[in-house]
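Protein modeling request. Please complete all fields; requests missing the sequence field cannot be processed.
Requester role: graduate student
Desired output: 3D structure, token encoding
Chains: 1
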Amino acid sequence: MRYIVLGTAGHIDHGKSALVKALTGTDPDRLKEEKERGITIDLGFANLDYPDAGLTVGIIDVPGHERLIRNMLAGAGGIDIVLLVIAADEGIMPQSREHLQICELLKIERGIIAINKADLVEPDWLDLVSGEAREFVKGTFLESAEIVPVSAKTGFNLDALKSKIKELALLAKPKPAGGLFRLPVDRVFTLKGFGTVVTGTVVSGSANVEAPVEILPKSIETKIRGIHSHGKPVKQALAGQRAALNLQGVEKDDISRGDVIVMPGRFHVSRAVDIKLELLKGAPPVKSGARVHFHLGTSETVARLVLYGRQELKESESCYGQARLAEPALAQAADRFVIRRFSPVETIGGGSVLDPSPEKRKKSDDLSLLEVYDRGQLQQKLERKISRFSVAQGGVGRLFLEGWIKEETPEIDKALASLKKEGKIIQAGDIFLHFQALETFRQQAASALRAYHKQNPLKPGMPKEELRAALHAGQKIFSAVLPLAPDIVIEKENVRLKTFQAALSAGQDGAREKILKEIDSPSYQPPDRAELSKKLAMPERSLTDLLNLMAREGSVVRINESVYITAAAYEKMLALLKDFYSKKPEMAVSEFRDILGTTRKYALPFLEYLDAHRVTMRVGETRKLILK
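Delivered output (628 residues):
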């Protein structure tokens, strides 16, 4: 099934709602006040089904009064095609013009012009109004649109209009079914026996009954209890459908028009969005810092516009800038928005969101990044966004990228795969980094290691945790990218430059000989580290580094943190053990003490070392030989 959304547009009292009712049999004016006053106040909904074509056209009927443009805008964001309704007895009127401008700003690509109330005028007059309409839409997306004279009252030409809507809907580009689920809320109500229900147009993706969802920007987590679409219960809400979602455990007052129902964990809200701003012809100039009404999806908030590279924007001009929002909002790159003058309220422009999660920038900053977001291909946009994240920032997650830009998920995957293949980005788990960020990390790590090696020439390397802290990197990203640095060697819990080897200086080589002499005890009673430090008048920290280096070299054996013996003494110890065990299968501590000629104070640490290195094995109060 194919789902397309049609929206009405046109001046008040030109018969939009009556035409929708005549086409569908559904009166879109649902409010008591609307029926009493005979005008559309809020959004109305209906649908046209074309079973032979596997097509359902959801219809959003918008109010035409100038004071209700904000309600019109709440419904216009999800429209695929527009039905511009012009009354034959009145012709083009102010809201005809403003509604068309809004459709242009939202980049709606197709539509039909219906000249309603054809029964009220003569054929010559109808031709005149049709000509006026053709001139009115010249230079817009409706320039080549079909003009269909109709009468909602008599039914004149309704079948022809239905046929034209079907043709146009089959040509319209469907909404991204492969994207992330997103439904901007345009109506909230309570249904007895069910609870809170929200309605809206599914602008991307799909969601099933029982699926977890999130309400943004309020960050409310909930679940879909039931779904209705086009008057029928369904198991899944699909891109392009008008859908009503019954939400679990949420009160009606918790949600409002402008909220967005989304797949959890992908989207982020912001109080600032980088934009490309366009002013309409005839619009008053807009100065940097001006306040406007900012319409995005079904939401409306006040925003302060910051223009980049200029102080003022004039009619028909465009520029890059930032909208700083009074209330947080959810947006994706490539979303369209409309701005209205703060006072007096009138539509003056709109544009596209370039970056819904921008970094802080100055007006004088280079705008090349925004140019890529504006005119670049998907692959270029993703590369530039990924390049803004360092290792210290944790890179950028796949889920973030999916929620950042309005695009089909398979297309994002394809673009990321191409960037990896070209070596422009690297992937570590679900984290992406630009190769330049990895190179910056490598340089910073190498610099930190050089400084550490200089200060600690005897140590085998810098502890990994110490390096991670110095680079302000998270554990996950650090562990993922450290092995990717070709000039860095990881040795258990230490890290060193590939070119570094701990070595003794000439002066330290003399100290080495003194250490060997001091610990070479025939009675296996060498001085401990503290005693050795005093004897050699060497700081204990420096002595420890030197002893550890000698242990790595193999000239000494580290029994524990205090006791060291020469390698020759250790080999002699092994020979004495083997000789003992050749005559007896087990050995007591006292026997070990006696064959070494030492005391129990030293015998116990020696045995613990031998046990730990699987030379001997303790069995009760005796030891057996493991090493043959």
